[in-house]
Structure prediction request, 990 residues.
Amino acid sequence: MIVECGHFALILALFVALAQSTVPLAGAARGNAGWMELARSSALLQFLLIALAFGALMEAYAVSDFSVINVVENSHSDKPLLYKVTGVWSNHEGSMLLWVFMLSLCGAAVGAFSNHLPPALRARVLAVQGMIGVGFLLFILLTSNPFLRASPAPSDGQGMNPVLQDPGLAFHPPFLYLGYVGFSVAFSFAVAALIEGRVDPAWARWVRPWSLASWCALTIGIAMGSWWSYYTLGWGGWWFWDPVENASLMPWIVGTALIHSSIVVEKRDTLKSWTVLLAIVTFSLSLVGTFLVRSGVLTSVHAFATDPARGAFILLLLVVAIGGSLTLYAMRAPALGGGGLFAPLSREGALVLNNLLLACGAATVFVGTLYPLFLDAVGGPKISVGFPFFDQTFVPLMVPLLLAVGPGSMLAWKRGDLLGVLQRLWAAFGFAIAVVLGAFYVTHGGPVLAVLGLGLAAWIFGAAATELAERLRLFRPPLAGVLRRAANLPRASWGMTFAHMGLAITVAGVSASAFESETINVLQPGESLTVAGYTLRLQGVERHRGPNYLYDEATIAVDRDGRQVALMHPERRTFPLQRQSTTEVAIRTNLLADLYVATGDPDAGGGWTIRAYYKPLVPWIWIGAVIMALGGITSLSDRRWRVGLPSRKAKSRAAAPVGPVAG
Amino acid sequence: MIRVLALLFAMLAGLAGAVEPGERLADPALEARARAISRTLRCLVCQNESIDESNAPLAHDIRVLLRQRLVAGDADAAARQFIVARYGDFVLLKPPLEPATLLLWFAPVLLLAAGGASVALHLRRRPAAPPPPLSEEERRRIAEILKETEA
Amino acid sequence: MRRLLYLLPLVLFVVLAGYFSLSLGEGSRELPSALIDKPAPDFVLPPLRTGDAVSLAGLRGQVTVVNFFASWCVPCRLEHPMLMRLANQDRISIVGIAYKDRPQDAQKLLDDAGDPYSRVGLDESGRTGIDFGVYGVPETYVIDKEGRIRRRFVGPLTPDAVAKELLPLLRRLRQP
Prediction:
């Protein structure tokens, strides 16, 4: 019964979305306030209905209602409750429901937090959101309905992949989807602006919080996925340039360009058509990612069960959404107008460089991911594009960008003094050199690129610190003045500092992965091996029983300099239902480095294969990502978004728009 | 579909990945070469790992075979080619540079050049016309606004 | 002129959508064999049943279907009835190769499910499989009279594949 309610709610949501897509749009064109107001109420109603549907599916999973086909295919009565519930989005149909849940959540949020938006713009934005909703709700109801009943109902489910029973993995989709789907708001704003025919600094101010929030969520989602791979896959790999990973990275890269580009529109009223295009492209990449994952066009261990009919439907959605918005762009963008002038060497110029390199980076990842597909479609040879391609193309594109982050953020608007900025960065440069020399010494002349990477990270960090210090006038007494300036510094500035520092930390972690050491041996209980100055002694292995698996737990004593430092317990789990085994790695971290131990199969003689790795700075990869997201959130909490938001008085089309009211 | 499932199961079976101690060659130089070459070959079962990382049985077999070839005296390129002859270019993680892949390898450079050119063009086409002078009505509005903010 | 630049994203997208629709229609995600039209690898394998070794030389002069299977392979069970039909009704001679299987397990499979093979070779190490470029089981190869590999089928043989591709190919290759 609850399931049928959920199903019905979804159908109702479709009709609400239809209304939301059409009536407000007509209202905006005719100036009918009542019709425009419908946008907000329908966005809220759509969200409530979809939330109801989502809740219904969640309930079916929680009580293990095996009369629902989706639950049968993806759940089992033995699964812990947490994983039953998170299993809702572990499959195609359920994750599509999560998708539209996030979409309607964003739409309702825009409706709720947009009092300062002119009604016509708000109506158009919500109308576009509604159109996207219509497309995806139709997709779900017609091809991917999670509420279909199984008759007769089996007595138990087909279980789920044991590897997916993990907190990191269970929670990373919601963040990821909030990110992907959140960029639909920027997309809607862009399309609405194109329909209206104008983009001004006020528009950029409205778009930015939504883009930033989505970007933060996507950063966390990608970082969680990467961290999950690291501790699950048994040797510490954290990025594979897998097509599905790339599908999440590309919107992130272009989203980064978007949030930076919208700063320029807001501050200098230029780069408008470029920013609008970025907003369209970011969400388009999310849509293309959805297509790639669910259509069977690319094989990936991440991909859901595939069905060409679904693929064709999504392709149709893509053609309408992306084709439509890009057509609108081609028609309206030339009229958007130029705006402020700036010298090439200026903050605007630096942000243009930022956009260019990020866009080329995303395009490179795009080409690499899809090239085998293209080649195959034109009848060429079947090749594969793996990490060597991306390492040799993406990384060289990013290096100049990373070098420019520091100086770029310190250049003045309109006309900057690059030489002056570089001189002010002498301390950061010195710090970078010191790190490079230190790293060379410590790693005994380790891989040059990795050492230079560490230097690059130090440069970015030092530059961010210098920029902050200058703003706070840190080295000018009195201290009270510094503290006062720190308290009054706009949160957006703090946000930028944190985000760039987080970037530096991640770059350091990534570079240091070249310095890891590895020892793999077969050990009998009592024997030991050494890795990076640690001695690991296998004390014994015991068999235990878990909730739905059996496991062999090894106890390993870790000594350093003769003293025991830790006791680690890697496990090897066997799931009888699926006849599979998985490895639970033991990781001991001091946040500066990880000691990573995994057990392999036992051999006939009672010996166990022990793989031990010492990975310096690896935790920084994810710590840096979290700090970047925190920077974004800090920026979001800036009072500019909450107080004194610009309002645009209604003016005739002929007159130029009034700029934002100072505040 | 079946194949995808088989692929998933194979990948997940024994996720401790990589070289078994028993596979390692006695000669450290040869072993280092074997590891290096393994890292460039794709595991065909779990299609986004190298055979050095993958724990699939096929990856194990190819690792062993590779080491046999090196012990038999093959140079790196010959040993790699031994595998490529059987599985095709697809097994190479780094796409070979050949006519079909020229566009792939040169894409980043071409994109950068195209992007850079359009940026340069955009910046060059300035200066834009100066904004038109304020009309009487606009002047009055500004005076109003200034009065409001002062009040 | 600059207006045309604004059209570029749309044009690129249309090309992309075109490629996507082409690849949706493709269907086949299998890896093509690197040995198509090349001589089949030389192999000599111990037989499952008593008798002569199973070797490439022994197959020369006739069109052969070689099927890699294993008792531990679930999809192989799916295609087994099809193989029985091909052997019994269509009278196709199929040489089986038990890939990475113990002889007793392979024998048990054939005892339980039926034996469609004219000969069965044992590839316990999997080396012959690698020589053929096998990357999973089941895989089926068509070898012509001169000993060249003409086609590979990856995964269980479907009725569609058999009717539309395998049988016509065999007919074509058998013509003198």
Notes: Strands of chain A lie at 517-523, 528-531, 534-545, 550-560, 563-568, 571-575, 580-584, 586-589, 593-602, 608-616. The longest strand of chain A covers residues 534-545.
